[in-house]
Amino acid sequence: MKKVLIAGASGLVGYAAARAFIKAGWKVIALSRRIPPGLDEAICLPINLRDPRTLDALNEHLQGLTHVVYAALYEKDDLIAGWQDQEQMTVNLAMLQHLMDYLFERTNIQQLSLLQGTKAYGSHLGPIPVPARERLPRHDHANFYWLQEDYLKAKRAELASSKPWHLTILRPQVIFGESIGSAMNSIPAIGVYAALLKDQGEELHYPGGPQRVFQAVDADLLGRVCVWAATAPAARDEIFNVNNGEPMDWASVWPAIADALGMKPGKRKPMCLAEEMPKRQAQWAGIVDRFNLKSPKDLAEFVGLSFQYTDRNMAYGMESNPPPLSIVSSVKLNLAGFTELVDTEFMFRRFFKTFQDQQLIPPKDWYS
């Protein structure tokens, strides 16, 4: 049985990747400070990558380990500002170095998939080329992506003669999935917002700003890309953009989201979710009790920093139509052999139904 280590297994990408590898028949070692539910078939270890001393818990599980998916991430409480914070960059580099120095010394890693994102193209700083392609020159700005990538490429060169291995870099855009408490997952953020409105007898108003075009990524699709990249010769030492295969804007998918949540789409009513939702903590706790939900009563524990992330993606506070958030080409990935696509409306319906089925948000058919 092939064996893979997933770093950041409780996060949006790591959780989906762990489940995808399990489904594909791999043995999975899942690393995370908090152990996520639903990974009973994996070896789950509560390791803090900021503290290299905790890595010794890996020792007895290293035999046969050949692959790594690195999806661990450190974010500042002020999410958006943190993307340009030097300490955040330093910590993210150190976390990767701690793990990989440990593994390279003790195992024969064959392939590593590293997660980046469209900030690699400078999407958080201003407009980017449309479409952004993997062959573009490196965008000149400080980013932990570059620190991690340079470290890994230096290690690959150092080990080329003794322990050769391959690096695949994946660049998804706005990811949606099943994780809770994540920094960047709008599914629980929208689910909470909708439940609070429905509790007040309101329709699902759109809380964002003007139309903004971008591309969504189904976390489960990304997980399957990770499985493909682990063994595909065409993925070796390459960079791939990843998305569902179509652009979207919130206005187009809002009716489907509303229907999935058992609501009617409402009006455009801008609201800063990061500021307003925490004020309704008691209301959310009451909903959790009323429906005997399994989600945390504490909004920060359930939603993480994702209210901030959702505000940004919905262009809250912008007065005129902003440029596209990021439109990138996924042609390279398709030509390399991974050709799956996802209907984004179906994706939203599926994830909200999953949250309902798992009793993380109220059922679709309820009335205040």
In short:
By secondary structure, the chain is of the alpha/beta class. It has helices at 12-23, 79-82, 86-106, 144-158, 186-199, 219-231, 250-260, 273-276, 281-291, 299-303, 306-313, 331-336, 344-357, and strands spanning 3-7, 27-31, 43-45, 65-70, 111-115, 166-172, 174-176, 204-206, 214-218, 238-242, 247-248, 265-268.
List segments where confidence is low: pLDDT < 50 over at least 5 consecutive residues: none
Strand-pairing-aware structural class? alpha/beta
**Mean of residue pLDDT values:** 95
Distance between the termini: 51 Å
What is the H/E order?
Answer: EHEEEHHEHEEHEEHEEHEHHHHHH
**Beta-strand content bin:** 5-15%
Proportion of residues in helical segments? 25-40%
Largest sheet: 7 strands, parallel
Q: Helical element count?
A: 13
Main sheet: which strands, in order across? 3-2-1-4-5-6-10
Q: Please tell me what the overall shape is.
A: globular
Characterise the protein shown here.
With 368 residues, this protein is α/β, with parallel strands linked by helices. Helices cover 38% and strands 14% of the residues. The chain contains 13 helices and 12 strands. It has helices at 12-23, 79-82, 86-106, 144-158, 186-199, 219-231, 250-260, 273-276, 281-291, 299-303, 306-313, 331-336, 344-357, and strands at residues 3-7, 27-31, 43-45, 65-70, 111-115, 166-172, 174-176, 204-206, 214-218, 238-242, 247-248, 265-268. The strands form 3 sheets. The protein has a 7-stranded parallel sheet, with helices on both faces. Strands 7-9-11 form a 3-stranded mixed sheet. Strand 5, helix 4 and strand 6 (166-172) form a beta-alpha-beta unit. Helix 1 packs across helix 6 and helix 5 (186-199) packs across helix 11 (306-313). The chain is globular, with a radius of gyration of 20 Å. The protein starts with a strand and ends in an 11-residue tail after the last helix. 44% of the residues are buried. The mean pLDDT is 95.
